[in-house]
Specification:
Length: about 325
């Protein structure tokens, strides 16, 4: 019974979402603020263990590169362009919205990256009608735009990026594993990642105190600019995937329909880890903007997840 349970991906996704919600609610109950101020060691542990998840993602991508969707390397143009435009468009929208607020403009990198853990959780729960190739596309563009965000942090924000570099390096390590060892490694690592690593990460990522109101968030330029990340990511990822598919089809490679790329692109609106990291860096001395960015990122993620779930559910079977 237990072995059957741990092999069902949707159960793991439900546990991930439940752990995140539990952390968010618990952190905002009366009398728990002091307790959560002392959870920094647990945060560090969860971030370190997250390397196992990215290693697993690297293994799955290696399988797709050698045997599946991306066997023809030209097919990588699709997620690559999707990731680049999916990062640039929301950043551009943020800069435009905050153009008259010099302090707020510092957060332009917040809406750039996709949180692959939560995006895959939503995909696992609701995307049963999506065609083959959808999940590899999601994993590929999410990893690439995380790398882009880490580069931005290093070059433009002048901050240490040990955690980001560590998890990205873990994914790259997974890509270097010989194909014949992938299946066995996945069998060993998958249960630990699904039922310990990811729920712990979700709990820690969302165990944050919210000290602003929804009205204050949606009425601020920071809040609006970050909420628009859902639209910006959708436009950027879809446009990039469309341009990439045009180039790839010339070589005879099959791609997804533009409508399916658009559905998947909505998941790009889910941003936690890197968004929170950038928020902590750029608004470390601005309490109000920091709180507005935090709540706006959470709200954008909820909106993106709900929109993607609806779009996935209403897709007709091929």
């Amino acid at each position: 019974m237990w072995l059957r349970f741990i092999k069902v991906e949707r159960n793991a996704a439900l546990l991930l979402v439940a752990a995140g919600l539990f952390g968010l609610v618990l952190a905002n109950l009366p009398g728990t603020v002091h307790m959560f101020q002392n959870l920094e060691p647990l945060h560090k542990i969860s971030e370190t263990l997250l390397c196992l998840f990215f290693f697993l993602v690297g293994l799955e991508l290696k399988k797709e590169l050698t045997q599946g969707t991306f066997k023809n390397k030209r097919a990588l143009l699709v997620p690559l362009l999707a990731a680049v435009l999916g990062a640039l468009v929301p950043a551009g929208i943020y800069l435009f919205v905050t153009r008259e607020d010099a302090v707020a403009q510092g957060g332009w990198a917040i809406p750039m990256a996709t949180d692959i853990t939560f995006a895959l959780a939503v995909f696992s729960l609701f995307a049963s009608r999506m065609p083959t190739g959808s999940r590899p596309f999601l994993m590929a563009f999410a990893i690439i735009d995380d790398i882009l965000a880490i580069v931005v942090i290093a070059l433009f924000l002048g901050a240490p990026i040990q955690t980001g570099a560590l998890v990205t390096g873990s994914a790259i390590l997974g890509l270097l594993i010989p194909t014949e060892y992938i299946a066995k490694l996945e069998e060993i690592i998958q249960p630990w990642v699904a039922y310990i690593v990811l729920p712990l990460f979700a709990f820690c990522a969302l165990a944050v105190e919210i000290n602003t109101t929804l009205a204050q968030v949606v009425g601020s330029v920071v809040g609006i600019a970050i909420l628009l990340r859902v639209i910006g990511k959708t436009i950027g990822i879809t446009l990039g995937a469309w341009l990439g598919s045009l180039l790839v089809r010339r070589s005879g490679e099959k791609t997804l329909a533009i409508s399916d790329y658009a559905r998947i692109s909505v998941l790009g609106g889910i941003g936690f880890t890197v968004a929170f990291l950038v928020n902590d860096i750029v608004f470390s001395n601005q309490v109000l903007e920091h709180s507005q960015a935090l709540v706006a990122s959470l709200l954008a993620a909820v909106l993106a997840a709900a929109a993607a779930a609806i779009l996935f559910r209403f897709r007709k079977h091929s």
